Amino acid sequence: MAVIELEHFSKAYGKFLAVDDLNISIEKGEIVGFVGKNGAGKSTTIRSMVNMIFPTNGKITIDGMDSVKDAKKIKRVLSYLPSDSAYYENVTSEELFRLCLKFSNESPERAGELAKFFELDAKKKISELSLGNRKKVSIIQALLKNTDIIVMDEPTSGLDPLMQSKFFELVMKEKEKGATIFLSSHNLSEIEKYCDKVIIIKDGKIVDYLDMRNVKIKHAQIVSYTTKDGEAKSFEFSGEMNDLISELGKLDLESLEIRTNTVEEEFIKYYKEDGTNE
Amino acid sequence: MSKLNFSSSLKLTGFDLRNNRKQIIGWSIAIFSIMFMYMILFPSMQDMAKIKMEAMPKEFLQLFDMENMNELANFTGYFGMVFNLILIAMSIFAATFAANLIYREEKSKTIEFLYSLEVSRTEIYVSKLITAFLACLTVLLSAAVSTAVCGFINGGETFVFADFLQIVKVSGFTVFFFMAVSLMLAGLTAKVGVAGVGSMVVLFSYLLGYLSKLLETKAEWLAYCSPFELFSPQKALALESHTMTELGVYMGITAIFLIVGGVVYKRRDFNI
User: Fold this and answer.
1) What is the 3-state secondary structure (H, E, C) of chain B?
2) Model's pTM, two decimal places?
């Protein structure tokens, strides 16, 4: 059974259709990446999942519950990390975590452990924290609740590489525990490294759905070679591998590289300036 | 559909009160000081102000509800005149404070944090209502306490505690009415600066009350648009049956405003 399901989900702001007829189904225990350039509809989709905004059409179900009717019940099983780490400037992170703990059954020690793990001084006021440290507050706040579903909107933006790796260390631990994770990110290499599936969205529509476990089979290979007489060529190939090898065998090759498209290349393919996706 | 969990609202209220304590304390101290400054000078104002005010145009005195000179001779009457002015300031506080409780959450996007907690939109709205109510009550009580202290010091026989309390209760309702107006506006939308709109409603309403007096029989009906006029300290003191009816109607309108704001808040997109 799908843990997160979007059926014909659309969201319009006036006449502007931000998300158009999205169908997404995420199984339990999966880490799914959601990529697209700014304004593609990622945050709109995520905010609709957590009932910050309402769908214009279609339905979103989280763990079998309707995102609108059961918005409060959903929060028992879902943690949300917003893209903007916006907090009350004159309170400390500790006070924020204390408020979070009032609404969950987690032990107060967990906040301290997470703050220590992310090297965050929780006694400092939000106004005194850098962007990166505010992001740590967001991450801790989201992971403070022990839930089965975690939805994160650009969780690593603003974090230094060390903290990004610590963050993914925690994400993988949550996955091991059986959590389902849905995250949007602009960092395509991390998406490729950690996600089981990747959804690419453009102008409010899904343009590709990559299953990273089968990506080599489903997606094109990039073939680059140089012949002994100096001819260099690079092309995309998505046919039978035997055909490719027999064709390449006819050439007098000096070097050959065959590799799978990276998520970044797939992404760029859809976002070429001319808009082609061939 | 989940039911309203009052204790969730109270947890948020506690957080909101701590978060806004500087503003509430600041306004309370300011209102306390202004009232104290006016009321402690009651004996000297009794003579001085009367002479100066007699020289002023009637319309000017009407604007500030000071047309009845005899009131300067007794503490409760004098309090009524001063309180009518302080009510404008307190109503502006109520309108801006209540509106900002909802509007700022969305403008600064802190609503994403708040609504990620296990609370419903209704519980957030109710928490804002309780916070705004307690803040307005604190500011109103600071004016009342300040006056009572001065009344016991220099009010003498003209300080009638029951009358004073009646003015605070009836005229003080105006503050809560404008709080409700702003909460409703913020519940309806966070796309415009609702605090400014709320303050304009306060001033416009005061102006309508003034015009109803200035134009007398030609536009008496305008008074119904102004709680400043309907529940002025003079009318609160007299407390005739029509004032009681008007108070009841206004309380009903206040409740409707709060419900409308809450219902729309529950169903609209957060402006983030």
Assistant:
1) CCCCCHHHHHHHHHHHHHHCHHHHHHHHHHHHHHHHHHHHCHHHHHHHHHHHHHCCCHHHHHHCCCCCHHHHHCHHHHHHHHHHHHHHHHHHHHHHHHHHHHHHHHHCCCHHHHCCCCCCHHHHHHHHHHHHHHHHHHHHHHHHHHHHHHHHHHHHHHCCHHHHHHHHHHHHHHHHHHHHHHHHHHHHCCCCCHHHHHHHHHHHHHHHHHHHHHCHHHHHHHHHHCHHHHCCHHHHHHCCHHHHHHHHHHHHHHHHHHHHHHHHHHHCCCCC
2) 0.87
Q: Which residues of B touch A73 (CB under 8 A)?
A: 2
The three-state secondary structure class of A197 is strand
CB B183 within 8 A of CB B261: yes
pLDDT in single tens digits along all 278 residues of chain A: 789 999 999 999 999 999 999 999 999 999 999 998 888 999 999 999 999 999 999 999 999 999 999 999 999 999 999 988 899 999 999 999 999 999 987 888 889 999 999 999 999 999 999 999 999 999 999 999 889 999 999 999 889 989 999 999 999 999 999 999 999 988 888 888 889 999 999 999 998 888 877 655 455 678 888 988 888 888 888 777 788 888 888 888 888 888 776 767 767 776 665 454 43
Nearest chain B residue to A103, by CA: B118
- Identify all chain A residues contacting B272, using CB atoms and an 8 Å cutoff: 47, 52-53, 84
B19, B117, B119 member nearest A91 (Cβ): B19
Return contacts of A36-43, CB within 8 angstroms, 24+ apart. Answer: A36/A184, A36/A200, A36/A201, A36/A202, A37/A202, A37/A271, A40/A201, A40/A202, A40/A203, A40/A204, A41/A11, A41/A201, A41/A203, A41/A204, A41/A205, A42/A153, A42/A184, A42/A201, A43/A83, A43/A153, A43/A184
For residue A11, the chain B residue with the least C-alpha distance is B269
Residues belonging to chain A with any Cβ–Cβ distance to chain B shorter than 8 Å: 47, 50-54, 69-73, 75-76, 79-80, 82, 84, 86-88, 90-91, 95-96, 99-100, 102-104, 141-142
For A84, name the nearest residue in chain B, comparing CA atoms only: B109
A252 Cα to chain B: minimum distance (Å) = 60
pLDDT (0 to 100) of residue B154: 87
Contact call for residues A89 and A125 (beta carbons, < 8 A):
yes
Nearest CA in chain B to A43: B272
Question: Percent of chain B at pLDDT above 70?
Answer: 90
Partner residue opposite B119 with nearest CB, options A53, A72, A79: A72
Shortest distance between the Cα of A120 and any Cα of chain B, in A, equals: 18
Residue B253: name the closest of B220, B235, B231, B237 by CA: B231
Task: Provide the number of CB pairs (under 8 Å) joining chain A to chain B.
Answer: 73
Task: Tell me the mean pLDDT in the region B208-219.
Answer: 82
